[in-house]
Structures are given as C-alpha cells and as structure tokens.
Design goal:
With 334 residues, the chain is an alpha/beta fold. 37% of the residues lie in helices and 15% in strands. Bound molecules: ligand PBG.
Length: 334
C-alpha cells in the first residue's frame, strides 16, 4: 500500500457516523417504554415471589404483588401486561376444566388489576395448556394422538367471554387451532363485548425457545419436550406463516403477533409488509434466558445485547414487543 493512498469518493457514509450528535440525528429506530408489553406470571396464595430458575430476574407473583407490579410498570410508561397463571397441579385435568372456573386465578387477577390500576391494558392468553395435565393447548381426540380442533375452539370461546366479563382489554388466543379467531370474535360480540379486542398469536412456531416458559407455568413434562407440531408452525415455513396471519386478520384479529421474535425477524418483516394492522412480536422466554445465561458467564454484555435484541425486533417491523425485559428497559429509557 502506498503511504498516501487517497480515494476519490463522492459517497462517504462514515461522515454521518463521525460524532454522537450525527449518529443520533440519523438513527432510524428508537425504543420507548410504550413499545413494551410485560408478560407476568401469577400464582395463588399470599406467598413471596417465586423466582423461576431458568429465567433469572423473573418471578411468579401472587395477585397482590401482581397489582403492585402493574402500578410500577405503568409509572415507568409500560402500557400493557400479559398475564399467565401457574395453576396448582391438583387443579389440572385432562380436559382443562379449570379454565372455565368462574373464580379461577387468572380471572381474579384480571379483576384485581383492572380495579386497582384501570389504566393498565390487560391481555390474557387463551389456550388450555396451564389447565391440562398433559400440557397441550387444547383437548385431545379420542385416539389421544392429536388435539380436537373444533371442541377446543368451543372451550376457548367460553374462556374468552369469561375473561371479557372480568374486564380484560385484549384476549390473545395462543393455541393455533383453526378458526378460533373468528369464533371468539362472534362470541364476544354476541355477549356484548364488542370492545374487547383480539391479539392473535397469528404466526406461532413450534419452538424450542419456549422451554423456560414451560418451567415458569409448570407445563413441562419429565418425559422430554412437549411436541406441539400438529398445531404450531414448522420453523422451516415462511409461506405458511403468511397464510396464518392473513386468516387471523380476515377472521377479525385487531393485532397480529409473530412468536418467537429474534429467530423470526424475516416473518415479522413480511407480515408487516402485508397487513395494515398493528403487529406485535413476542421475545419469548428462551430468547430472554439465553441472553441472561451468556451475560452470567461473562460472554455477552447484558445491557448492550438486550438493547440490540429489542431494537432489531422493532427495526424488522414490530410495533410492540412482549418481553421479559420490559420493566428494566422502560426504567433505562426514561
Ligand atoms: C401457551 C404459550 C406458550 C408461550 C406463551 N403461551 C408456550 C407454548 O406454546 O408451549 C410461550 C412464551 C414464552 O416462551 O415466553 N399457549
């Protein structure tokens, strides 16, 4: 190389990266507290928060502590929470009957939060996995080798109306049964809940990244991973995800969701380009835990990796992100 090598360039993109001021001026994507939805685990009783071993920093909360957490989140600018009950194993059965118990844990949690912190937007998962002994999202067929789609939808419809009656703002069917969004919309309307919205887990993949969540809600089985591949999407399939998103939109979903988020940025981007509805992405338990684990080993910088992971999801096209980092991110961004 000659000493004084000099390019003659019209375009020098680095000019706009020279100072912090210039970099801030040309930044295209910005995270803000209102981008986040905090998933929260709730348990019965009055016990102390129960740390989830595979999710450092995440605990299951009793209803009173849940209300306090919602108050704190709202103060930090986080507008919404997604509630996940962990049921006592004795309440579970083959059919998930506890899901329709009018005084069930998640219904009491919805009522408590909406009463104490009415400005907090509350959404709940609509699926049977917290309630079934087998951990599947619906009820089994007679042969017990698959889920009974239509019978499951019938139960989810009733569950949605119960949640709406308790005051939930958005129901989020996460079961991936065919036709459930339309059936839930019709049932909500017929029961007078035309203002209760639906955030559809539209493209939900059969992912290994749900592992820590299944510990958190007690649906993991000793005998190995729970195979949900007859209803959740094959991680290999892009076009099929777009079909699912289009169906949920046509059936009346108010918000579409892609899940997991980080490994599926291409799907987020493509759904974003095909719909005008708001789009959510779920940075799931395994995405959270792998960042925490690497940070604990000293292999990754927690703050920077956390920020980059969320920024990338928003840059791909998500309008809102469900993330276990919601509270600490909102506190940092304020
Ligand atoms: C259950 C449900 C799951 C998650 C949200 N709702 C797990 C599953 O489908 O097995 C996963 C969330 C996470 O991993 O953070 N319907």
């Amino acid at each position: 190389m000659p000493e004084k090598f000099k390019l003659s360039l019209v375009h020098r993109p680095r000019r706009l990266r020279r100072t912090a001021g210039l970099r801030a001026m040309v930044q295209e994507t910005v995270l803000r507290p209102a981008d986040f939805i905090a998933p929260l685990f709730v348990v019965d009783g009055k016990g102390a928060p129960e740390p989830v071993p595979s999710m450092p920093g995440v605990s299951r909360l009793n209803v009173a502590d849940l209300v306090k957490e919602c108050r704190a989140l709202l103060k930090l600018g986080v507008p919404a929470v997604a509630l996940f009950p962990k049921l006592d194993a004795r309440l579970k059965d083959d059919e998930g009957t506890a899901a329709l118990n009018e005084d069930g844990l998640v219904l009491r949690a919805i009522r408590a939060v909406k009463k104490a912190v009415p400005a907090m937007t509350v959404m709940t998962d609509i699926a049977l996995d917290p309630y079934t002994t087998h951990g599947h999202d619906g009820v089994l067929t007679a042969g017990r080798d698959d889920l009974d789609n239509d019978r499951t939808v019938g139960i989810l419809v009733e569950m949605s109306v119960l949640h709406a009656r308790a005051g939930v703002d958005l129901v989020a069917p996460s079961d991936m049964m065919d036709g459930r969004v339309g059936a839930i919309r019709r049932a909500l309307d017929a029961a007078g809940f035309d203002q209760t919205g639906i955030m559809a887990y539209a493209a939900k993949f059969a992912s290994a990244y749900y592992g820590p969540f299944r510990d958190a809600v007690g649906t993991s089985r000793g005998g190995g991973p729970l195979d949900k591949s007859t209803y959740q999407l094959n991680p290999a399939n892009r076009r099929e995800a777009l079909i699912e998103a289009a169906l949920d939109e046509a059936e009346g979903a108010d918000i579409l969701m892609v899940k997991p988020a980080g490994p599926y940025l291409d799907i987020i981007r493509e759904v974003r380009q095909r719909t005008r509805k708001p789009l959510a992405a779920y940075q799931v338990s395994g995405e959270y835990s792998q960042i925490q684990a690497a940070a604990r080993l000293g292999w990754l910088d927690l703050a920077r990796t956390r920020h980059e992971s969320l920024l990338s999801i928003k840059r791909a096209g998500a309008d809102m992100i469900l993330t276990y980092f919601a509270r600490e991110m909102a506190a940092l961004l304020r």
